[in-house]
Write a structure and sequence with these properties.
The chain has 378 residues and is of the alpha/beta class. The chain has twelve helices and 17 strands.
């Protein structure tokens, strides 16, 4: 099958599309996301989406001739020493997928944090407004601030050399710098050959501190240009790593519709997710105004996040007994939809986005992907 422009769609192309939808750098440090198994150069015409890669889901992928599975939960999570067919863990499923030529990709916590991902979908089901993460994750191109100290007479020479090497660019602006007058001192020993002043005596020089931002890819050239153009034998300079402005992150907080109660929100979410295992913490008639949502298992994390401290309810997948007690002691309420149930709604929007991003490719949501817990009377 061909993508837009007549190019053949490959596993690598789908992987790149998923990396754009759910950037791997958004994932938690303990997670295992991205392409976990497969050949990037292999053709890919059909992709199957699921929450958990089970034997039933793999059989569905084989029967429907899918060349790739996007499994929200990574079937390879902890480091493994071997992948064999007779394993009693998910390694056996991965082995069969590889033997069938089926690639496996997992977005997990990257999709949690990404725009339009798990938590945005869950926030949408709650009807939240003014939505934002309750803990931000810094992502983006890494930049540095380069600082050096130059005598006034050579200042423009050094600045121009650094600009030409790629420093001082902020958005569409170039040659951006900050300059501050001061005084520098140095004492050259007998082994030195100072270009300013004399060795064997303390020198005081009127200098300008100049600083400018620099993209990581330009850093070696900028430092080399600084050294070449600087009048000192041993120029002093500092390199400071810069943290990108946070835009995305873990969980979501937002404002609920006027008149929402714990009972009404629980009914709305049960109907939207078709959950058979939903539980609530707190009285059903409790009035709610702000919610913190986190697919999967939030635990007591929202209680510890300043941006979520004012929430009245925590909407998540599962809650431990002692975390539920902590939530009650804090005067909050909670809704536990079921771990799988809180994440599954994100698959249909993900399928639409993947089709739009890649182009001519079939993306289907698994019908064999089912929650491990079932309700019933016995």
């Amino acid at each position: 099958m061909m993508a837009r422009g007549g190019k053949r769609v490959t596993v690598g192309a789908v992987t790149a599309a998923m990396d754009r939808i759910a950037p791997p750098e958004l994932a938690q440090s303990w997670d295992n996301v991205g392409l976990l198994a497969g050949d990037r150069s292999a053709a890919c015409t059909r992709v199957l989406l699921c929450i958990d890669l089970t034997p039933a889901v793999l059989a569905e992928a084989v029967a429907s001739r899918c060349e790739m599975i996007v499994s929200y939960h990574p079937p390879l999570f902890k480091p493994v020493k071997r992948i064999v067919a007779d394993s009693d863990g998910t390694e056996a499923i991965v082995h069969e997928a590889i033997s069938r030529g089926i690639a496996i990709y997992s977005p997990h916590t990257a999709l949690d944090a990404a725009e339009g991902g798990v938590n945005d979908v869950l926030a949408g089901l709650c009807g939240l407004k003014d939505v934002g993460p309750f803990e931000y994750v810094s992502v983006g191109r890494r930049e540095y601030k380069v600082v050096t100290f130059v005598p006034l007479a050579q200042l423009e020479k050094v600045a121009s050399a650094m600009f030409a090497a790629g420093a001082g660019r902020i958005g569409d602006y170039e040659q951006c710098s900050y300059r501050l007058r001061g005084e520098g001192t140095f004492f050259g020993t007998e082994s030195t050959n100072p270009r300013v002043g004399r060795k064997g005596q303390l020198e005081r020089v009127a200098e300008t501190r100049i600083e400018m931002v620099c993209a990581e890819r330009c850093l070696p050239e900028v430092i080399a240009a600084l050294k070449r153009s600087h009048p000192y034998e041993e120029p002093a300079f500092d390199i400071y790593p810069l943290t990108p402005e946070p835009e995305m992150g873990i969980g979501r907080v937002g404002v609920l519709p006027q008149g929402t109660t714990l009972g009404s929100l629980a009914k709305l979410l049960k109907r939207a997710t078709k959950s058979q295992v939903m539980m609530t913490v707190g009285a059903a008639n409790t009035k709610l105004r702000r919610a913190a949502v986190c697919g999967g298992s939030a635990g007591r994390l929202p209680l510890e996040m300043p941006r979520a401290a004012a929430c009245d309810v925590i909407v998540t997948g599962e809650i431990r007994h002692h975390d539920a007690l902590s939530i009650l002691r804090a005067g909050k309420t909670a809704i536990a939809l079921g771990h799988w149930e809180s994440e599954r709604p994100a698959l249909v929007p993900l399928a639409h986005r993947l089709r739009r991003t890649v182009g001519s490719i079939a993306v289907v949501v698994s019908r064999k992907d089912t929650p491990p817990f079932q309700s019933g009377s016995f």
